[in-house]
Amino acid sequence: TQSINTETTKDGNTRQQRAFLETDAAATLTSDWSRHQLSVTSEGAWQKNVSGEGEEQPSFKVNGDLRLDLSRDAVAHLTGGYNFYREDTDDPDAIAGATQQSDVQEFSAGASIQRDFGILRGTTALALTRSVYSDATLASGTTVNMSDRNQTTGTLRGRVGYELSPALIPFIEATIGRTLYDETRDSAGYERSGHSYGAKAGVEVDLGEKLKGEVGVGYAMADFEDSRLSSIDTATLDASLLWSPIRGTDVNLGLQTSIQPSTTAGESGYVSHALTTTVTHQLRDNLVATMIGGVTWRDYPSDSSINDELVYTTATGLTWNINRYLDLTSTLGYELTARKDGPDSQQWRAGVGLKLKR
User: Fold this and answer.
1) Within the chain, how many helices (H) and strands (E) appear?
2) What distances in angstroms separate CA 155 from CA 110, 112, 176, one per listed residue?
3) Counting beta carbons within 10 angstroms of the beta carbon of residue 181, is it exposed (0 to 12), middle (13 to 18) or buried (19 or more)?
4) Which pTM does this prediction carry?
5) Dihedral Cα 203, 208, 209, 214, nearest 10 deg
6) Is the Cα torsion angle 315, 321, 322, 325 positive or negative in sign?
7) Residue 144 to residues 83, 87, 149, 155, 185: CA-CA distances in angstroms?
8) Which phi-psi region, left, alpha or beta, contains residue 224 (left: φ > 0; alpha: ψ -120 to 50)?
9) How many CB atoms lie within 10 A of CB 358?
């Protein structure tokens, strides 16, 4: 997709506006083997400012999944991935006043096996993620070394489900994780390596095209090696549901509760409660409308010096299928970060583009 966009950002009394070109690309590769399957997906975005000022936000990710059909009742997956993005200026850990935030590279690998034991279904999974941060650039041209944020995280997950029917499977799940930072202490002298724990119970639902997904409630906790950093714990509510109320309309609902560690001196982190909804509706055979809405509550501990924040996002778009090879796209979006202490920040974005399909 090649698009031209305009973006206006307001942070307190500071206002920035830019026009930029964006090139988006996505590709999927799937094997057609009689047994086992390999799938590779990739997508990326490149931006170039043509006027105004504001930070460009390039991104790229690729993920691979090798499914191994071990037997009639057992399936294994080997996964690997790479994700590149530039940290958002609105991120709580972003460097204030930087003209270019840190470029983040994430390398991931994982293995899982699922086995059916009659009406019981068991899953064991191991995931590893390596995160590397580049220097941030200040307005003066000097750089801030961010290598003290480099880290490796390993997570072990186990799940047991009970098949009441093919459409309804209650489950229980437990996770344990370990995060190791490359440097024992960060630039402020804090030891941020630590452990994470989680447990939840829920249900998987599969009613075909009408409704599928899962919902779970549970508990999560993270602690740190530095005694000055307080542990974070929270009740969790997670959901991922795809609902089709009528033909031509799809509603994708997501709920996620997660613990987000901080790199701010003296801060442990916060709990993120995120709700996202995406609605797509086919207006005509060659015209599709998309509406996106979301809200994220950044819930900081009571002993934190940072107050809670609410992030609201909304966007709408139209895709006109000109022919089998070409689409005309248009988007309009808005984001508001509301803070109890300090100025709110707002961002407006609009764009129009052409999408080439193959």
Assistant:
1) 0, 21
2) 9, 12, 6
3) buried
4) 0.91
5) 10
6) positive
7) 22, 14, 12, 30, 17
8) beta
9) 5
Sheet holding 143-144, edge to edge: 98-100, 136-138, 143-144
The answer to whether residues 268 and 252 touch, using CB atoms and an 8 Å cutoff, is no
Give per-residue pLDDT as tens, 201-240.
999 999 988 999 999 999 999 999 999 999 999 999 999 9
187 close to 159: Cβ distance less than 8 angstroms: no
| 2-356, CATH topology level | Maltoporin; Chain A (2.40.170)
CB count within 10 Å of CB 351 equals 20
C-alpha 47/C-alpha 18 separation (Å) is: 11
C-alpha distances (whole Å) from 258 to each of 101, 199, 237, 262 are 23, 12, 9, 13
Greatest alpha-carbon span in the chain? 65
User: What tokens does 219 get?
Assistant: 């508990």
d(CA 231, CA 203): 29
- pLDDT tens readout for residues 248-302: 999 999 999 999 999 888 899 999 999 999 999 999 999 999 999 999 999 999 8
Domain locations in the chain as residue ranges: 2-356
CA angle, residues 249, 254, 338, in degrees to nearest 5:
110
Q: Say which amino acid occupies 243.
A: W
Q: Which residues of 78-105 are buried (b: 16+ CB within 10 A; e: fewer)?
A: ebbbebebbbebeebbebeebebbbbbb
Asked if 96 contacts 89 with a C-beta cutoff of 8 angstroms, the reply is no
Nearest-angstrom CA–CA distance, 321 and 327: 5
